[in-house]
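Ligand: heme C. Inputs:
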Amino acid sequence: MAFLILEVYRSFGRPLLPMKFRPYFSACVRRSLMFSLLAFAAHIAHGAAPSFNAGDWVRLNRSETLLFKGQNFMPAPKGQEFSVLKNDAAQQQVYVAYFKEDDSMVAVTLPAEALEVAPRDGWGELLRGMEAFRDQRADEARRGLAAAAQDPVFKNLGASLQARINGALAAASQASAGKPQSLVSMVPTLRDTAVQLDKMGYPSLALALEEGVDRLGKQVAGGGAIAPSKLDRGEIVKRVTASTRAVNRCRQAVALHKMVEAKRQLDEGLKAEPARPELKALQARVEKEIADAEDDLKAAERMRKFAGGTVHALTALERGLKRCVDDPRLKALKKEMESAFEERTSPQVTAAMIGGGAGKDVLEEGRKLYTTRCTECHDLELLDSRTMTKWEGVVGGMARRAHLDDVQRGKIIQYISAAQATLK
Ligand code: HEC
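Predicted complex:
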């Protein structure tokens, strides 16, 4: 795949209706049958398109373009995950969070049909469960923590939080029936649990617990009667905000193969929340891609020195940039080798090419289309990166994205074919 600079997906106005129910079903297969049936009943009751809830994690089931205020904003590949801010059932679009370079968050939209609920792992259940407790959605809190208690990785933590939260919820319902004693006596233990969670490297769980306890306290005891927090809350809010932002920005960067940026986010996120599992999971992958890109760079630099090594150097360079588009040394080397690169991707039309059959005008026009229209979203690939049969397939597929007609497509293929045949 060529490395992406920008994917301008101008075909956005295509009809949406026939696909209306697809994401609903794809979301369903990933959930339990029970839940599917409930969701289906709700779906019929509301007569609405697939709906996601604020706080859900969703992922793209195809590559798409994020829209900001209706305008193209950023390409997003299949599989990228987002957290839902709001579901606009009437427009069948979903508002999701996007974190910009300056760390501000914007709400961007995606068509509902391109999204499915992201499968939740043990950590996802744990965090969502604790956030549900914070927001006083008791059933969801119980369900999330029960699922976490079954998870092979998080079962111990899950089970102990499950016991405490279930106890707190039971005490809260007694309190609302006029008997606050057991809730009041339980709060100091819950405050200690929050301190422990923070010590374990999970401030996001600690904060959700603290805020949930505050709310229960306000509700039943007029606020003053429960034990206060033992954590520096202002500081912990800062750290949780930073780690959540880092998770989002790291995912965004990985999706676009910006591994250097991803590494920066990882470092910042792990400083704020040292055990954050999403970051730990991304860490191994990011570090491997950076190390492999480093090897590609070394290979490219080595091969350049040999007579006839240029083409190998370019191949290594291209491979490295696919892994890691924002590696500054690879980018610098590419700039240095620009003319050699052009020679291997889009050479000028020569007499030898014309000798192959196609006329000069056709080839010139094919080259012009190729070097202008096919570079709108990414760089060109090496001519000998694939056979002519493969090129025909790729150009056929890409012509739709570049809005090229059959005649134009034919000219590009003729140019690629002639240029490839005369490649030294
Ligand atoms: C609107 C944006 C856009 C335009 C214009 C575009 N491409 Fe692409 N191209 C992409 C994207 C996105 C990918 C990434 C993978 C995918 O979705 O197939 C890609 C991937 C590729 C690949 C790698 C595919 C593979 O499977 O190895 C090649 C080669 C390629 N494009 C060639 C072209 C050519 C030739 C043209 C002009 C006819 C072109 N592209 C025009 C967006 C574009």
